[in-house]
Amino acid sequence: MGIAYGVVGQNMQSFVVADSSFVERSIKQFENVDSVSLIDVASLFVGVPYLAGTLEHEEGERLVVNTRQVDCTTFVEQVVALWRTLQYPQPSFALFVDELRLMRYRSGKVDGYLSRLHYFTDWVTENAKRGVWRELAPADADRHLWSNYRLALSFMSRNPGNYPVLKKEDMGRLREIEGRYDGLGVNYIDKSYLHLSPDELPVCDGDILSMVTSIDGLDVTHLGFAVWRDGKLHLLHASMTHNCVVLDERTLYDYLKNRTSCPGVRVLRVWK
């Protein structure tokens, strides 16, 4: 199964026939459905294998479409891009590719490795500007549920060996991107409250949940979609443990309670 390369504007993209077929088949599946939720779309990916690093190309940055193998971020990106594509009067694979490009790259332009939105907070901020989602805050629920921390992003610039392509990049530019968020206050729901009911937590099915981390220089380490089952909050995500996309059998409270580096979750709500 060969990789197809094409140019949209000035943006190189790569995908295989299975990717376009998956999107076109999904569009067909929902064409007569009045209301499609994010969870409806995310469920199409259940069982898709987990694989990190699918976006990395030593030969140059390009827009990668890979519905056959996902990590936690590419899973969420492709679900939201496909859901947004379904809102168009005439959805298509080309529109899906455009949505993915706009979501993944600063100003929607593929212009080298650092044009990709690597940090979660950068990704959230850029896409909030174009109306994809908003991040929930204490005004959305009882203030006692929330905690706050100050950002100091530096993980990539301090650990360039973890990112082979960085050796070709301007590290000063990377540090400038990281510095844009120095001291930014970020709100998250403390994980000790994640056992609460749907009436008590400001979390809805399809919200994007990201795991805050105490790892120096990082903002979050994992993300997925919120799913309520029998009054308990679960995570639909690309799981490294299960090696595929799953609706985790454990509640999110149980999933996080022994993860000492994760104090809680940030919550994004995609605009309907």
| Rg, alpha carbons | 18 Å
Average per-residue pLDDT, rounded, comes to: 93
Give the helix tally: 8
What proportion of the residues is helical, as a percent range?
Answer: 25-40%
Number of strands: 11
- What is the ordering of alpha helices and beta strands? EEHHEHHHEEHHEEEEEHE
The secondary structure category is alpha+beta
N-end to C-end Cα span: 36 Å
Beta-strand fraction estimate: 15-25%
Which runs of at least 5 residues are low in confidence (pLDDT < 50)?
A: 1-11
Tell me, briefly, the overall form.
Answer: globular
Largest sheet: 8 strands, antiparallel
Structural summary, described in words:
By secondary structure, the protein is an alpha+beta fold. 27% of the residues lie in helices and 22% in strands. The chain is built from eight helices and eleven strands. It has helices spanning 17-29, 38-43, 72-85, 93-104, 120-129, 155-158, 171-179, 252-256; strands at 4-8, 11-15, 63-64, 133-135, 146-150, 185-190, 208-212, 220-229, 232-239, 244-247, 264-270. Strands 4, 5, 6, 7, 8, 9, 10 and 11 form an eight-stranded antiparallel beta sheet that branches. Strands 1-2-3 form a three-stranded mixed beta sheet. A hairpin with a 7-residue loop joins β7 and β8 (220-229). The chain is globular, with a radius of gyration of 18 Å. The relative contact order is 0.15.
